[in-house]
Every structure is written in C-alpha cells, then in structure tokens.
Design a protein that fits this description.
By secondary structure, the chain is an alpha/beta fold. Helix content is 33%, strand content 22%. Strands 10-24-25-26-20-23-11 form a 7-stranded mixed sheet, with no helix packed on it. A 6-stranded mixed sheet has the order 15-12-18-17-16-19. Strands 4-5-6-7 form a 4-stranded antiparallel sheet. α11 crosses α12. The termini are close together. Bound molecules: adenosine-5'-triphosphate and magnesium ion. Adenosine-5'-triphosphate binds next to α5, β8 and α13.
Length: 558
C-alpha cells in the first residue's frame, strides 16, 4: 500500500512538473497514509526509487496509470442533498430493486440517496421488489438485497412490498387503458415493431376495433397466445421525437413460474407500466431514478394521467459507474455464470458481498456514493477514492500484525534470546508477544539489495548488520538503538498464508484474466486467534481481511 500511494503521487508530480521528486511528494504520501511517517527512511528510499521509475515512463503509460487514481484537493464531503417541493414530514421515497441478482455499489448509491433524503425531511423510505420478470428473479436475491441494505445501514419503513402482488390491479388498469383507446394488442414480429417504430408507422393491429382488442387481450391472459406472439402496447405518439413514446410495451407474455406468484400469470407488466402505478398507489412523493430513464419521464406521466392516478415527482441522478469494472447486474451475472469470477462475492466485484469480503466498510461506501450527491453529471470514478476513504476509517482501529511476503530466512549471530512484545496498535497498550531465538523470516525483496555491513532493524526488536547475503542470509546482532535505518517486519515461525489481491477486472473493456493475484508468505501466529472477517493492518503491507482460517487466507483491502 505504501508503494501504491507513493506511486500515485510520483505519477502526478511527474505529470504536473515534468519530473517527479521525492521531496515534493512525501508530504502528500504521509498525509494520505500516516503510517509512512513511522519509518521515514524507507518512505524516502521508496519514494526515490519510485520517482526514478516513474520519470522514465513513456507518456502514454504515465497517462494510463494516472487514470487509476483520483486527486481531489477538497476532502470529499457528503454533498448537501435537497429535494424540490418537499414538505417536512411528508416525503416518501422508495428503493425498487429487481431481485435478479446480488446488490452492488450502484444499489448502495440509489438506496442511500432514497434513505438519506427521506430522513432529511422526516419522511419515509419504502422498499419495493420490482419483480415482474419471472425469468430472472429468485427468493435468494430478495434475501441478498435485504441483507445488503441491512449491512449498509439503510432502513426501510414497514414491510417491504412486491410489485408482483399487484397483478390483478395491473390487469384492471390495462382493461381501462383498452376501454379508453389508449392501448392495443400487437401481434407483429419484433422486427416489424422496431421497423415501424423507426418509420413512425402504424401497424394493422393498432387500427383494430375495441371489441377485437378486448378479445385479443383476453387471449393474452388466458393462453391463446404463446410467448412472444403478442404484446399489449401503449397508444402513444408514433410521430414523437421521443422514441420512448412510440407505442411502448405495457405487457408481454412470459411463460415461467414466478418465484412468488407461481404459474397463475402469463402476461407480465413492463417497468414502464408497473413503476408509475406502484409509485402512485404506494404514496411515493419523490421517485428517484437514474438518468438513463429521463426519456421515459413523459411516458411515466402519461400512464398516470390516463389512469387518473396521483403523480409523484421524478428526480434523476447519475448512474454510478466505476472505471475498469461493471456496475450492473446485467454485466455481473454473466461473469458469475461463466466462472470468470469466483461467485457474487468475488473481491474484484463491485457487489456489496464482494466489497464486504474485501474489507470495505459500509461507512466508506456511504461517503463514497453520497459524495456524488444528486447530480446528473455522469463521471467514472476510480476505486482509489473509495479505498482511501476506507483506509481513513481503518487506520485508527485495525490491529497491527506482521505478514512477510515471499519470505527469506535469516540467521542472526549473537542473537539475544528474548520475548518480543509488539503493540497491537500504536494507540493501545495491548501487545502480541513471541519468544524469539536466532532465526527469522523477512521479505525477500527487501533483502535483495542489502550489502555486507549494512544495518537494518527487525521491527520493534533490534538492529542487525548484514554479514553474508547469499542463499543462506547471515546477519549479526547490532544493538538496540532505534536509528533511521530501514525496519523490516518479520516472523520467527513459518505460518503459511495466502493473500488475494483484487486487480482491475477489466482493462479497456476487455476481461482481465489475471485480475486476481494470489501472494504467498508467512504471517505471525497471533492471527490464528482472530475471527474470520477481522480486518487487520499488516505493517508495511496493507489492510487485509481474514477470509478463511483453513487454509489461512486474507484478502487485501487497501
Ligand atoms: P439490471 O442490470 O438487471 O437492470 P441493475 O444493476 O440496474 O440491474 P436494478 O434492480 O435494475 O439493478 O436497480 C434497482 C435500483 O437501483 C434502480 O432504482 C436503479 O436505478 C438503481 N441502480 C442500479 N444500478 C445503479 C447504478 N449503477 N448507479 C446508481 N443507481 C443504480
Ligand atoms: Mg436496472
């Protein structure tokens, strides 16, 4: 993590000034990662090394790497949220997920906005499962969504509701639409329909008389038509500039057993028909939805107007996307299905389960998603912003341990036998302790360049001087005094451990098959006493969450 943060500022320094200088970046590094201050020598050495690397990067590589990071001068505060025409005590919002997958960070954004706004105005937020597509929906996903919201701390008012519990109502409203000459059953093929939409042309179905429409609708409900043979369409405006108004679908036939309603229904309402009706009858005052629905707003109001139903206010906000990943069930589902990730809780995914597994705290997610506020401006933030938020939360609380990646054994001549006591956190008195002799394991990469006679310190123990840096590394005891020399984390017993690091799942929109990196090493024994789920700080390495004890595995968080 230290090297990551140094690299981030070195890249920026090079970009801004043509040349990265260690002195110019350490201040920012320490501000973002206070731990770096404890070992300034290593921090400076690393900064020098990384600046050198960064200074020779070709410009396009520099830009590509920089795009992974975000640099905000201002700390991102939660933006002031406000609704228009909101009456204190009367605001009702709703979060309407479809139970067709596990919740993700986009749902966190939508639900936090719904929840925080309802709270702000002393109103309520409803939870409604928008479940009128039996093909994709499952009770497992209903539970996962509720569990995800609970984890985030998003509370809904009363019992959750289900759009599919209102099928008879939808049928009756559809009947009204037919009577009013506002709907018709269309038996054209999909190709014909889209062609006519493009040509803004009317088809023969649209012109049939009411009696014929009614009998066709009855056929849709009773089984006279197979799947795809007929749809109920809104009689909109084929000449409209807005394609959403060119006779959109209100009902389609889907012959699948519904997870909640069984097989009693064949014709299922579209989102365009069900959403405005549900919002209206459930008393929603402010219906928030992502900007891509904006074109459908006239349709939303047209349906309500025809049915003489109360009109909620529509409020749009930007759909959250994150660079190099995909935020949306429709994108995540195939990744899970095709085995490109290890399930919905894969730590590379932006699902709540994936983020949780990666040790991202709900509070960090909340600050991150609310930092965009209700703006409609689309942006594509990088993970970095969420991760630095998370680091800030973990730093004061996570217990410290040692993990030695790719270890090498060293022998200390003249080693004093003793009990090493190390604080679990700089601000706490509690310690972990080990009686140590003369054998230790330290990170191989750190030892590689150490020359004979050079001194380094075994962190929180004593100094050693390099005697022989061969296959078998020999060092000599070199006193206790804390100097500015490099300090290495160590373990005295080899306890094997694997750490998974989530990289970018996509690079330039292509799936990155090497995005899950598994690093092996030794970690200190005290971690065996931790519960799965605990997030620790491995000193000089990063925050990691204990994922499994057998085999011993952590997931790198940030
Ligand atoms: P699908 O891909 O199946 O459409 P989805 O990921 O868009 O799934 P939905 O169940 O359709 O999820 O969304 C539920 C609610 O969450 C909607 O109100 C939607 O606007 C909101 N939402 C979904 N994805 C995002 C996102 N990336 N950013 C913000 N809000 C989102
Ligand atoms: Mg959606």
């Amino acid at each position: 993590m230290l090297t990551d943060i140094i690299r981030k500022y070195a890249l920026k320094n090079r970009k801004d000034f043509g040349n990265a200088r260690p002195q110019s970046i350490v201040g920012k590094v320490v501000a973002e990662f206070p731990d770096a201050k404890k070992d300034m020598k290593t921090t400076m050495q690393e900064a020098a090394r990384i600046c050198e690397e960064v200074n020779v990067l070709p410009e396009p590589d520099l830009d590509a790497e920089l795009s992974k990071y975000s640099f905000e001068e201002k700390k991102h505060e939660e933006k002031e949220l406000a609704l228009q025409n909101a009456e204190q005590g009367k605001v009702v919002t709703r979060f309407p997920p479809e139970p067709s997958g596990y919740p993700h960070i986009g749902h966190a954004k939508a639900s936090f906005l719904d929840y925080e706004l309802a709270k702000k105005y002393g109103g309520k937020m409803l939870l409604r499962f928008d479940d009128t597509n039996p093909e994709k929906e499952k009770p497992e996903y209903v539970d996962a969504i509720k569990e995800g919201l609970e984890w985030l701390g998003v509370e809904w008012d009363g019992e959750e509701t289900y759009t599919s519990d209102n099928m008879e109502k939808f049928y009756s409203y559809a009947g009204k639409m037919l009577e009013m000459d506002k709907a018709y059953v269309c038996t054209c093929t999909t190709e014909q329909i889209s062609k006519n939409r493009e040509l803004q042309a009317e088809c023969e179905c649209r012109k049939l008389p009411l009696e014929e429409q009614k009998s066709r609708w009855k056929k849709m409900l009773d089984g006279g038509y197979g799947a795809g043979e007929a749809i109920l369409r809104y009689k909109g405006d084929l000449s409209s500039e807005n394609t959403a108004m060119r006779d959109p679908t209100l009902f389609r036939i889907i012959l699948f057993a519904h997870y909640r309603q069984g097989e009693q229904f064949r014709a299922w309402p579209s989102y365009d028909f069900a959403a405005p009706i549900m919002d209206s009858i459930e008393g929603v005052t402010h219906a928030l939805r992502t900007k891509e629905y904006e074109l459908r707003n006239p349709l939303y109001f047209a349906v309500l107007k025809d049915l003489k139903l109360r009109e909620p206010k529509l409020v749009e906000f930007a759909r959250l996307s994150i660079k190099n990943t995909k935020v949306g069930k429709r994108y995540i589902r195939p990744l899970v299905k095709e085995g490109k990730v290890e399930g919905w809780d894969d730590p590379r995914l932006p699902t709540l389960k994936g983020l949780k597994r990666r040790g991202i705290l709900p509070q960090a997610i909340k600050s991150f998603v609310l930092s965009f506020g209700l703006t409609k401006t689309e942006s594509e933030p990088v993970w970095d912003k969420l991760l630095s938020e998370n680091r800030k939360l973990l730093d004061p609380v996570a217990s410290h341990y040692f993990f030695v990646p790719n270890p090498i054994r060293i022998k200390v001549e003249g080693a004093p036998e003793r009990t090493a006591k190390m604080k679990i956190h700089p601000e706490k008195e509690e310690v972990r302790q080990y009686s140590v002799k003369d054998t230790f394991y330290v990170p191989r990469a750190e030892i590689e360049g150490v020359k004979e006679g050079e001194v380094f310190r075994l962190k929180e123990l004593y100094n050693v001087r390099m005697i022989e840096n061969m296959d078998e590394v020999k060092v000599g005891y070199a006193g206790e005094e804390i100097t500015k020399d490099k300090k290495l984390q160590w373990v005295s017993e080899p306890l094997e451990c694997e750490i998974w690091k989530a990289g970018d799942l996509f690079i330039n929109d292509g799936y990155n098959s090497k995005s899950l990196i598994k690093e092996r090493g030794y970690c200190e024994k005290a971690v065996l006493g931790l519960d799965v789920g605990t997030i620790v700080q491995f000193e000089r390495y990063g925050f990691c969450r204990l994922d499994s004890k057998e085999p011993l595995r952590f997931i790198y968080s940030c």
